[in-house]
Amino acid sequence: MKYLIAGLGNIGDEYKHTRHNIGFDVADAFAAKHKAAFNNDRLADVAECKWKGKTFIVIKPTTYMNLSGRAIKYWLDKEKIPVENLLVILDDLALPLEVIRLRPGGSDAGHNGLKSIQESLGTNQYPRLRFGVGNNYPKGRQVEFVLSKWKNTEEPVVQEKINKSTEIIENFASIGIARTMNECNKLTFLL
What we know:
The protein is built from six helices and seven strands; from the N terminus they run βαβββαββαβααα.
């Protein structure tokens, strides 16, 4: 069984380890945990790993956030992976920092990466792991906020959530989305 794990973010050093790039950080952590290395390939940096008889194709699209759908559609088609075996990992301003939410589908909620994926796939029914980044910013400063680095006080909880997210990816593939949602959607990470 094959799974496509797509961490969303923007390429370039100025975006590294920003709130908006948490998808890349989770993808990196998952690949590292399974001793897989990323290589630059068509529309994405790609790593492949096997775990408990399952194959994970892990991608970090190199298309920039608002064209993420192109990379995801390409790799789903190339690897012949059904959309229910796709897991998109992204930042979510609507969620406080102390939570993560796994969902089987839903609206893009104004997230340009999700908008692009929905357009490319022709559906909003694909699993996503929403990593709460909080919304502690002045009115009109949303862009600066999502492109900012984590505060020192936030780093421990971010690291804990990244580690938990790698487990969630494994559970998504091994026990299914429903059971994994029951386990992870009620977690609160303490700041």
